[in-house]
Structure formats: C-alpha cells, structure tokens
Amino acid sequence: MKFATFFVATLLAAAPQLHAQDKTYPDRAVVIAVPFTAGSSSDSNARFFAEQLSKTFNSAFVVENRPGASGVVAVMATKNAPADGHSILLASNSPISVNPVTIKGLSYDPIKDFKPVSGLMRGMQAIITSPNSNVRTFEEFVAMARQKGANVGTYSDGYRLGLAWLAGQTGADLASVSYKGAAMVFTDVMGGHIDAGLVDLGGALPLIKAGKLRILAVTGESRNIELPMVPTVKESGYPEYVNYSWTSFYVRSETPEDITRKLEVALQKSLHSEAAREMAKKMGTELMPYTADQMREYQNAEVVRFRRIAEAAGIKPQ
C-alpha cells in the first residue's frame, strides 16, 4: 500500500472548510490516551499531533499516559469514555493488531469497538545494549545469546512477539523481561541490569546519539538514514526479519461521523506539513499518512502478519 493516494488530495481540499463547519466540537478538552510511558516514541507522536490539533481547533488536546497490560489500560479508558470525540486512543500495533493474537478473552474488540481516524507514523525497532557491554555487534550478540542466553527488555506484547520471532530466526536464547515503558528499559540497559533491549528506535535515538546506549541493529527494510552505519537484521543473515512499530489515532466506533471526519481532515493536513516532516526526520521515523479507510485496511493486514509470526514462534493466546 502506498502512503499517498488521491484520497489525501480530497481530504486536503476539504481542510479550508474546517473552521466553517459546526463549531460545537470540541466543546471541552480532548483527552488522548497513550498506552506507554512518557519518553517513548509513541508518546512523542501523540504530543506532536495533540499540539497540531490544538492549533487547528483552538482547543486543548491533552495527552494522558496510561501504560500497562500491553495497552489494555489505555484502550479501556477510551472504550469507557463517551463516544463524542473527546476521548482519542493513541493506537499502536500492540493494542490494535497484536493483542487480538496474543491475549485470550480480550476485553475489547479492536474492529467493533473502535474506528481509525488517521495513521500517524511508523518506525523501525532497535536492538540496544549498554555502551560498557563487551558485545559490540549484532553477530556477537547472537553468538553470546546462543551460548548462554540473554535477558532482553521489552514493554508490550508487540515487542515480546518480535523478540520471540527474532529468537526463532537466529536460534538465540532470548528471554523477554517485561517493563511498563521504554524509559525503564533504557535505564536498565544503561545500568547493565539486563543484557539488551528491543525498543522503538525513535525513543532511543537521542540516547544512542549521546553515547548512552549502543545500537547493534535495526529491524527495517533498509538502514535508517540517521544511523547509516548500523546494519539491519535483514542484511545480517535473516532476510525475513523486518518489523516496524506504528501509531495512529482511533476513536470509539459510535463516534459521530462528522466529528471523525473533522479530525481526519485536520490530521491529514498536519501530516503533509513541513513541521511533520521535520518531526519524523528528528525521530528517525517515517510519516504514515493513511486515511481512516486505509488505516483500517492496514490494521487488518497487520493482524494477519502478527498471527503468522505468532504461529511461527509457537506463541498461543494466554
């Protein structure tokens, strides 16, 4: 699927009419529930677009971090709020496309209970370790983990599933150590309390550039432009291993269509701005300006992809 289609042009054409429409929405602060702690790439995405929406609607869009239970805490907070557009979920691959595969008796239905508003960004993941570690390359990390195992920090089912897939691909003994957020993984990796972390590159990038974390590999189709010397897992001998994290905005499925449309138009305009391009470059990520319909199609494809990964890794819903 291409990121830009004629649908985008249609949405952008409607943007100038945004302020001419009914101004009853929003009539109070809009809360954006983020399933991860502050400092993560997802959190940064939410705060950037919250600021853009605040400017567009001349109203407050407030980010609330609600980490825990692989995103279920934030999802349920949005599900239990009124379906009037004043509660938005910062959705990512974990609660929307991974949880249906890994969690038995999930307390929400990502398809029936929620509808997408717009895609936001996607970013490759990174395998990181302490700069004081004796492991300096991805090959050395795999060799070490094959010999004596490695404890690897993760902070959602999406990362845990990605780690299990990596273990299956490399034959390494990789044990997932679960955290509530990326910042805690960074801290324990830097302190040498765990061997490594599988994290979103965007959140880790400032610490990598500052020399506080060592990056061994990235999980993209190709190398990241901000870190051209860092190899991909794919080019390191595992051609099937390509994995991205992504973010999007969702609302309850019963939210009136005119409100959803207003949000979609505003977000598409923001996604095609110079500010968004600069933000993506700074974070080492890619813009993902999917319309609502495109986001639903992508979500469904991701569920299929993660189900295939889970089956290959021998992971069953628990």
For this entry, what is the oligomeric state of its chains? single chain
CATH third-level topology of the largest domain: D-Maltodextrin-Binding Protein, domain 2
Count of domain modules: 2
Silhouette: globular
* Strand-residue proportion: 15-25%
Structural class: alpha/beta
Distance between the termini: 32 Å
CATH classification class of the largest domain: Alpha Beta
Strand runs, count: 10
Characterize the biggest β-sheet. 10 strands, mixed
Number of helices: 11
| Assigned CATH architecture of the largest domain | 3-Layer(aba) Sandwich
Topology as H/E string?
A: HEHEHEHEHEHEHEHEEHHEH
Radius of gyration: 19 Å
Could you name the CATH homologous superfamily of the largest domain? Bordetella uptake gene, domain 1
Low-confidence stretches: 1-10, 12-22
The averaged pLDDT comes out at 91
> Helix proportion of residues, in percent?
40-55%
Structure commentary:
There is one protein chain. Helices cover 42% and strands 20% of the residues. It has 11 helices and 10 strands. It has helices spanning 6-14, 41-57, 72-79, 93-102, 138-148, 157-170, 182-190, 201-209, 257-271, 274-283, 292-313; strands at residues 30-34, 61-65, 87-92, 114-129, 150-154, 174-178, 196-200, 214-218, 244-252, 286-287. Strands 1, 2, 3, 4, 5, 6, 7, 8, 9 and 10 form a 10-stranded mixed beta sheet that branches. Helix 1 packs across helix 9 (257-271). The longest helix is centred in the C-terminal third of the chain and has 22 residues, at 292-313. The protein is globular and about 60 Å long.
